[in-house]
Amino acid sequence: DAKTTQPTSMDCAEGRAANLPCNHSTISGNEYVYWYRQIHSQGPQYIIHGLKNNETNEMASLIITEDRKSSTLILPHATLRDTAVYYCIAKNQAGTALIFGKGTTLSVSS
Amino acid sequence: KAGVTQTPRYLIKTRGQQVTLSCSPISGHRSVSWYQQTPGQGLQFLFEYFSETQRNKGNFPGRFSGRQFSNSRSEMNVSTLELGDSALYLCASRDPGLNEKLFFGSGTQLSVL
Fold it and tell me: Is the distance from CB of A9 to CB of A107 less than 8 angstroms?
């Protein structure tokens, strides 16, 4: 019962901005969107989350469309260490757990 | 603060055996969730414990069980292991007052032969 869809993979040059899109047209109005990433052989790492307004922290920025049907995670200056699988996440229908989906594999190259 | 600690890091078992995995959450976190990660199915939610009570459960057979102790440490048990149980088992803790910001451990890689 995944509620989010993401591209399977993306490439980005080191130093450039990485813009990772996510569609979440079926989430409810009071449901947050979360972003995590997973570097090979490690557990997922929280990046950012948002409801309606754009959010920014030390790792990334999150832009949510006004209709809340999609969002974009922005890594402003991608580095090789940002190579990872990025998950855009919402809760399952019962509201009891985060559903991770397949994510986007971001490859940052020099 | 120390992060989420999972032990052991690697485990090899044979079909039919049972296994117990351990997770120590971040100090002060009373919620612990368990996820199974496989190449084919990705990350799947197993269950969540809060204050020693199972609060939510995913769609896994009864062979998968867990518990949480008074110090918030958690264990999960898988009985009668099957080849398909080979996976990375991830534990995550959170402070329920901070929405769903989960802090994951590095996981236990279980191989069933």
Answer: yes
**Whole-angstrom Cα distance, residue B22 to residue B61?**
20
Per DSSP, what are the bridge partners of residue A73?
A20, A62
Q: Is the pLDDT of residue A98 over 80?
A: yes
Is the pLDDT score of B49 beyond 80? Answer: yes
| Stretch 48-107 of chain A: residues touching chain B, C-beta under 8 Å | 49, 87, 91-92, 94, 96-103
Contact assignment for B42 to A45 by CB distance below 8 Å: no
Nearest CA-CA distance, residue B83 and chain A, Å: 21
What is the pLDDT at residue A91? 79
**Torsion angle of alpha carbons A74, A29, A4, B110, nearest 10°?**
100
Type of residue at B113: L
Residue A20 has pLDDT above 70, yes or no: yes
What is the share, in percent, of chain B residues with pLDDT greater than 90? Answer: 88
Among B111, B48, B54, B87, CA closest to A98:
B48
- Which residue in the set A42, A94, A101 is minimally distant from B42, CB to CB? A101
* Cα of B80 to nearest chain A Cα, Å: 26
Chain A contact present for B43, CB below 8 A = yes
